[in-house]
Structures are given as structure tokens and as C-alpha cells.
Amino acid sequence: MSHASAVTPSRVVGIGALVVAAAGPFIFSDYIAHTLLTQVFWLGIAAASLTFLSAYGGMVSLCQISMFGIAGFVVGNTVTTGEVKGLHLGWNPWLGVVLGLVVATVIGLLLGALSSRSFGIYFLMLTVVFAVLANYFFGQVTNLSGFSGISGIQVHTPGIIGNPNLHPDRLYYIALVVAIAVYFLIRYVGRTPFGIALQGIRDDPIRMSSLGYNVAAQRTLAFAFAAFIAAIAGVLFVWWNDHIDPATIDLDAVINLLIVCVIGGLYKLEGAWVGALAFVLINNYLHDTDVPLVGGSFYTVIGAIFLVIVLLSPAGLLGIWDRLVQRLQTGPPGPAVAAAGPTEESPSTSHEGTT
Amino acid sequence: MTDVTTGSTRQGSRWTPEEATRYASRGIAGAAAIFVLVWVLFWAPKTTYGSAVSDPTDFFKTFLDSLTFAGLLFVVASGFTLIFGLMRVVNMAQGSFFLLGGFIAYKLQQNFAHGGGFGLLSSQVSMWQWILPAVIAAGCVGLVGLGIQQAFLRWNQGQDLRQALITIAISIIIADQLLAHFNAGNAQSISWPGKLDRFVSLGFGGIQYSLARLFMLAVAVVIGVLLWLWLQKTRTGMVIRAGVDDRQMVSGLGVNIQLTFALAFFVGAALAGFGGVMGGSFAGLQVDVGGQWLLNCLVVVIIGGMGSLAGAAVGAILYAFVFNFSAIYLPTTSNNCCTEYSVVFTFALLALVLAFRPQGLLGRAG
Q1: d(CA A176, CA A174)
Q2: Stretch A267-280: mean pLDDT, rounded?
Q3: Which chain A residues are within 8 Å of B162, Cβ to Cβ?
Q4: Three-state DSSP class for residue A345
Q5: What is the pLDDT of residue B4?
Q6: Where are the beta strands (DSSP E) in chain A?
Q7: Nearest-CA neighbor of A153 among A227, A70, A236, A248?
Q8: Cβ–Cβ gap A140/B162 under 8 Å
Q9: Burial class (CB in 10 A: 0-12, 13-18, 19+), B333
Q10: Chain A residues in contact with B301 (beta carbon < 8 A)
């Protein structure tokens, strides 16, 4: 009902967040800007690749972190030189970036083809298996990594980035710009014929198949595209972290990425970065607390938060936000709205009401 | 009929394209299987033991290792497949149930045998000091599973993704609680009873083999037979099988399907817990092992077919053989090649099965 350019509370908050992010290094401490916020940007990109698959394709893939890791390992192996583990080929950093993205996308194409005929929960299980096997692969194959992983990547970044340790602001802004670009790229892809067909497949694969669409091919392409997005995050990650090892992509990491997406909201693209922010903040400020009564650590807290969100608000924090906004605008929501399964929402229409 | 409908382009050909693909894929799979067989039996240069013909003793040991490992896989995966078959719940906490069972049994055994927190020697452990902790631990894990099902899963029936996410959340919490209360970060091991922890002669080729591993296989076979009898020959089993086919129809006939669900979840979780006791006796326990066992369950049921008991058995055997044989019958000599690539073979097995039968070997289509 509202026009595309209308001022909505979501837009005001979104633009406000962007303004704050753009001024980040000037208003926040070094720790908050470079350690936390840069992390939010790349973690959000990785999460966005899962949210894209889930929101547009109905495919909850748990091997996005593997695609992320594959790109990171490729960069680490190709650009570093002698002093570290791996192949240390010492190639041009840009070549490493391109290779990382290409290899991850090709592997995404392959795994996508393999899993394209599995739906729903079967797809989820299959991707968990891919993820764990990828973790074991890099753990076992010492030519490429081994358990100690690859270090010293920060000194082999492209010239415009420099050593992120010495010039953290550059990486901050590059991660921010890339995150914004990824956001708009996914939004754009969602509006192309491919993206619309993908949403049709999400809602009714049999009908789309009888309309003449090649369901398996569309899902394979979506998977490869998501692998490409995750690979971008992987490249940013190795620049930021200087180091990558198999623990970066183990089952805990798989689940952490899922937590990010679920906390933010699996059905909306913005949720990826909202979830990343929430996760990074919880991770940093609750990490050393002990849980009263039952004992345990940070993971009991995050597991409980995860459980509560899945049980009470499957659309995550953004789902809560949407309900709040709706209540402010139109009074209490009707039961149909509150109880509507988030899977029925179409991300392109539910976000701004652009119809 | 087919020749008439598809016209003249394939006149003379007896196969439809679907049949041709099917036969071609079977041909490829068969050729791969024959190659592997020939490789292992006669060729296998530069491997740990050489070919089976040149070193039959180690071949049979690897064979038995695989078979006994398959037994353990089957116990854990049958619980997973039982829960999935009936309720469509993918229990991502199955690995955590495995760990929980193992650690409860470990604590109990320490108490019963006065271990004082140190590793017990098997000579200090009597048969009952293994069986009793195992049964109690399995029961406890069954109750935990039952509680989770009643508290969180029951009212989300039909929302399979949400249920999977719930079990993931629970597995995070269980893993962290195990770290806090059971010192799960360090590797700990349950002791086999002294009577089992020895080698027996198998009567051919002078092979000595671990009795404990044979016991594990025997227990798995017994559990498999009992499950089969339960599902095929009892009234509850009939209700479960009917529930797998059509849940609403069964409850429409006046059967309390919720009770059956609860029972199946109890048994499925208890099997994971019992598997944890056996796994903890044979390979030790550590918090990371939980993820490994989740992977094992998933691979077994994806290969064998979701919700099928026989599928779990077939999947367990295939996976165990590929897992063990690829680690031993790959060449080792050239610097870093090739046993470290054994994980690729698990993936290849999975890819091969999925490419030809997305529903798994014994799974039902659709």
C-alpha cells in the first residue's frame, strides 16, 4: 500500500544504522570498530548467504560456513609464502581472491547439483554432512592445511587494503561497502526472473516443474550463488583474522552461523546483519559469565536464547520488530498475523510492502 | 507399448531412456565395486598391509573391525531412524544423547567400581559393573529424550525444520552442560569388564580378535532382532508402522498415537545413550565425539534410507566398510598421499548413493 519510497520505521532505523556504521571508526573505540563491527560485517555476509537460500529458495543449508572456509583456505594456500603451512604458492593477492571465489563457487555448483533433488529437512541433513566432511578434509589433508591451519595471510593482502593490522580502517570500510553491495546484489537477484522462479520453487516445486522450470537446475544455481556470497565473506575473514584452520569450519561454526541467522530472522535478508551484531555482542560481553543454577558457560546462554527464539519467534529479532511496528501503527495484531507461519511470507513483499 | 508411444527414433532399441540411464548407472556402480574388490583382494600396492591375498590376516581383521563398527553405528542410527520414521523429527541432538549416555555410564561405573576419577583397569570391572551403568544410562537418556519431546517437540508437530532447530539448540545446551559437569573436555573411557577385554582365537588363520568388539557386534544384532520383532510382531509395532504410513488415519481409528510417539522417542533416545556406552568403552568419550556421531547417524540413514530399520543396517555396514577400508587400503608411500584422503571416500559413497537413489538405498520415494 505504501509507495516504494515511503518513510517506514524500518527504513529510518536501517539508514540510521548505516550512518552510524559509516562513522564507526570515529565514534567507537578501536576495539569496537575493528574487532567487533568489522566482524559483524563479514559474519553478516556469510549469514546472508544462508538467509538468501532460506528466504528465497526455502533451502536451509548448513554448509555455507564450508564455502566460506574453502574460499579462505584457497586464499591462504595461494597467497602466503614460505614461513607457514599449506601450499604457500606466493601468488598475487588478487589472483588468490579470484581463485578463492571461483573454487568455492564451483564446489557450490557441484554440491548444489548433488543436493538439488533433496528438499526441506533432507536438504538440511545432507548439507550438515557436507559441512562436517569439509571440516575433516581440511583437518586430515596436511598439504592444504592440517589441524594447525594457515597463518600469516594479513601481510599478503592486495595493495589497497594493506596489512589490516596496520590499517584496520581500510578493512573496516571495505567490509562495510562489500556488505552493502552484497545486500543489494541479493535483493536485485531476488527480483530477476531467476529469483522469482526460485521463490516459486520455494513455495511449490511441483507446480513450477509442471510450468516447465527445471527445478533442480534453478536450485543448483541458487546454491552456487550462495556459495559465491559465502566465499566473499571467507576472503574478508582471512584478511581480518590472519589465520584459518579447520576449527573455523567445524560443527560448532556451522551451528554458530545458523544461530546468527535464526536470531536475526531466517526469512529476511536484513536479519543476517542484525543476527551477526547480536551474536558478536553476546559472544564478547557474555563470554566469561557463569550461568547461575545450572552451571555451564556462554554456550548454555546462547543455546537457551536460540531455543527461546525458535520456540517463540521463528522470524527472529526482525519478526519481533515487525510485530512491534505493526502494533504501533495499527493497534494489536490480529491472531492471523501473529500466528502466520513465516514460511508463507515472501521476502520481497513482506519487507517494505512495495506492492 | 513404449516403442509405439515414443515413435521411430528408437526403433529396434529395447530400452527407454530411463532404463538406459538406470542400467548405465548400475554399470558404473558395479564397475566401481569390482575395481575396489580387485584392488583390495589382489593388488593394493604400497598400502599399510598390501592386498588381501598377500596378507589375509590383516584383511580379516579390517573386515571384522568394519563389521563390529557397523554394529555400533547401527545401534545409534536405528534410534535416529526410528524417531524420524514415526515423527518426521530429525533429532540433531542424537550425538549429544550418545555423549550423555556415555558420560552417565562413566560416572556410574566410577562409583560402582570405586575408580576415584582415574581410568579403571578392565580387571577391576566385573560384568555387572558394565551392564548396570549401561542400562541405567540408556534409561536416563531415554527419559531426557522423552522430556524434550513432551516439552518442546510435541506441540510443533509437522514443522520439521523448527523441530530440527529445537534439537540443535538442545544439543548446544547438552554439550555445554557436559563440559561443566562431566569434565567432558578431556577424553575419558568406560572400561569393558575384564571377562570381555581379551583376545580370542577365531579358529582360522591364527587370528586373535578382541572379544569386546565381537560382543559389541552381538549386542547390535540382538538389538536389531529385538527391534524387528517389536515392530513386526507386536501390537505397538503395528501401530508404529501404521503411524509411519498415515499418522492421522491411525489416530482417527482411536489409537493414542501420542503415547506411541512418546514411547518411540524414549526408545530412540535410549538407543543413542546405549550406543554412547558402547562407543565410550571402545573408543573413549570426549565432547567433540558428539558431532562425529551426529555425522555418523546422518550418513548411515541418508545412505540406507530415512526411517527404514533395514536401511540403517545396510547403511551402517556400507559406511563402516568404506570408512575402515579407505583408511587402510589407500597407498601411503608418496609423502602425504593418500590415506589422509579417506574422508573423500565417505563423501564419494554418499554422492554415489544420492545421485542414483536420492531417497537412500532402502528408503521410500516421495
Answers
A1: 5
A2: 91
A3: 310, 314
A4: coil
A5: 43
A6: none
A7: A236
A8: no
A9: exposed
A10: 125
